[in-house]
Amino acid sequence: MSENKAGKYFILDTNILLHDPLAFLNFEEHNVIIPMVVLEELDKIKDRNKDVSREARVAIRSLEEALKEARPDEIIDGVKLSRMHGEHNAQGTLAIFPDYQLEQNESVLSLSENDHRIIQAALEIQKDKAPAAVVLVTKDINMRLKAKGAGMKYVEDYRTDQLIDDIRLLTKGFYKFEGDFWSQVGEVETHQEGRDAYHTVGRELLPQIFANEYIIDETNHFAARVDSYDNDSVTLMDLGVERLMSYDAWGVRPKNIYQAMALHALLDTHMDMVVLTGPAGSGKTFLALSAALQMVVEQGIYEKIIVTRNTPEIAESIGYLPGTEEEKMAPWLSAITDSLEALHKHDESMESSLSYIMKKANIQFKSLNFMRGRSIQNAIVILDEAQNLTASQLKTLITRCGENTKLIVSGNLAQIDSYYLTAVTSGLTYIVERFKDYPGSATINLNGVVRSSLAQFAEEHL
Hints:
By secondary structure, this protein is α/β, with parallel strands linked by helices. Helix content is 32%, strand content 19%. It has helices spanning 14-19, 36-45, 51-67, 72-77, 114-129, 141-150, 241-245, 257-267, 284-298, 325-329, 334-343, 350-360, 391-398, 427-434, 453-461, and strands at residues 9-12, 31-35, 79-80, 93-97, 134-137, 154-156, 174-177, 188-193, 196-202, 214-217, 223-229, 233-238, 273-277, 304-309, 363-367, 379-383, 406-411, 441-445. Helix 2 (36-45) crosses helix 3 (51-67). The model is unreliable at 1-5 and 313-321 (pLDDT under 50). It comes from Idiomarina piscisalsi. Belongs to the PhoH family. InterPro entries: P-loop_NTPase, PhoH, PhoH2-like, PIN-like_dom_sf, PIN_dom.
């Protein structure tokens, strides 16, 4: 190995390159080392019928691009990344560690497991590169614990796409003013555009704002949405609490001010994307579906409703299971069918109503793993359970949305099932932060459980 001690050394686990195939370019002037076993794992994954197979192939091609002109000894010592084409800030080196040379003995982890080979490689590099800092980077929480227990001084999660350090800092999509709003306003300019009133107030009143943020006050007498702002002033579109609470979509009316703000954003055709966060039972899916039916069936603004979510359990086998894609997806989209049933439970024949609506609204159930490569036009896309997706997976879906398409993303950051994601590294958190100042999107945190008193008690006390 090279004796160059400049910068830190980062050893990447396989899941880092599956999470972000170009991750090795994101360590600036520092040096990146990839154990040989990681290449073996990428090779096994690249040909599978899985969503991550594409990431594995992209990672392999990118690594080949970085190392293709290097000699074997240079690859082990480290190849300068600055010679790679494209826009990146990598000024360090990339090396492959020959972990097949590691010898098994009683004092180390079993090298028959790939995770243990990566940890043992990291320990060898830590010893060889001392006193330089050597960091093992993995999204596997259990692997981080084992590595620390085995003697690694520095073990980290991959944080390049982590935009906040504490989930409590995540924007809620609205700002609740303490006390009465108008009692704290100095100068104000008001003008009318049709039925809407716009108020321009000083920026010092609302120093931390972003596009389409909703403003409410504790008295429940004032509700508005940020229309525009500059360094000196903010222009608010006056919504009125009573007007907000009177919104109706497919027979559904909001039960609280948070649902009212969500319904307002959902029904606004200028919003290309609406993100709904909040606890279980707050009405995310119910509101999304009722607004979608209103805009497709009643108003005819869109032609169809596409409902999707990540289905890792059936990613490999869905193509071989009997039945249509909709039938295969049904167990994973029961939240949608439950909501449809709730919307039509008082109909004379609920089953006939559901069949009619499914056909009339052209509701399609699709697996997220098969959305890649599509171009979706004139549709409302509802992405459910988005908290279990990475930023890369969400980018895949968002970039599929074409002309006259509205994307509704919903998720509960307290219910993450992925081994490799936390509330702050979830793709849902990432897009809330990335799109918070995009003029064509709105985020609403549905604060409060409306499903039942039992569900609310469980959310608050369990």
